[in-house]
Amino acid sequence: LADIKLAHSVFALPFAITAAFLAAPRQPASLSIDWPSFSIQLTLIVVCMVLARTWAMLINRLADHAIDAANPRTARRAFASGAVPIKFGLVLAIACAIGFIACASLFFSLFNNPLPPLLSIPVLAWIALYSFTKRFTFLAHLFLGSALALSPIATLIAINPVAAFAPLTDLTTQSIYLLAAFVMFWVAGFDIAYALQDLDYDRTSNLHSIPSRFGFTRALWIARAFHALAILCLFASWYAAPTLGSITLTAVSVVALLIICEHVILTRRGLAGLPMAFFTLNGIAAIVFALAACTDTLWQ
Prior knowledge:
Layout: H1 13-23, H2 35-63, H3 65-70, H4 78-81, H5 86-111, H6 115-133, H7 140-159, H8 161-164, H9 171-195, H10 199-204, H11 210-214, H12 216-240, H13 246-269, H14 274-299
Helix pairs in contact: 1-2, 1-7, 1-9, 1-14, 2-5, 2-6, 2-7, 5-6, 6-7, 7-9, 9-12, 12-13, 13-14
C-alpha cells in the first residue's frame, strides 16, 4: 500500500470526474443530468480508475525492482527490498487488469457501448508502457503525462462515444481534449522536477530522463515550459466548455497560481521543496479545479 500510494490518485481521478460531469447524459426535456444512468457510469469510472492506476503502479514497481534496489532513495520499496514477493505483485497486477476489463465491459452490457471493453486492453498496455520508457528515451515524462491524460478522454468515450469522435464540432469534446492536454503537460512537468532527485543515479545507471540528459537547471526550465503550456491548455479548456463559468475561471486562476508557487518553491529551496511542490500543491490544484468545474456544471 505504501508503494502503490493510493493518495496519488488525486493526480488523475479529479480530471476523470470533471470530464464525467461535462459529458454527463442529459434528460431530453429539461437538459438536466440523467442521474439514474449517470450515477452508475460515474461509479464504474471511479472503480476503473482505481483498478487501472493500481495496475500501472504495480507494473512500475515490478519492472523497476532491480533498479530501485540499487538506488539508495528507493531501496526500501516493497519489491526492491524483498519485503513483498514478486509473484504476489504479479498476481495482484493481473487481478487488477481482469477487474478493469470486467468493469469496462459493464458499459457494453448496461449502456450498449462496446468501446470501453474493446479499448480496455490497449489502455492497460499504454499506461504500463511508461514503466519501461526510461530505458530508451528521455521523453519518459511525456509518456507518463499521456498515460494520465487518457483519464478524461476515456471517460468521455465511456459516457458519450459519439461526442468523443467529434472534437471539431462539439464544444464539450474540445474542452475535454484540452483538459487532457493540460494533464499531460502538467504531469510531465512535475515528473521532470521529481526526477531531479535521481539525476546522478540515472546518469551512472544509463537511465534516460530530461534531468539526466540536460542537467538540473535546463531540466527545471523545461518543466517550467511544460507547465506554461499546461496553464494555457487549462484556460482554453475553460473557454471552450459551454457549462463552465466564473466559478471554474476562478479555480483555473488558482491552479495557475499554485503551479507558479511550485516553481518558486523549487527555485528557492531546491530538492528540499519537492514534497511541498510535488505532492501538496499539485493535489490541492487538482481538487480545487474539479470541485469548481463540477459545481459550475451542476449550477448550469
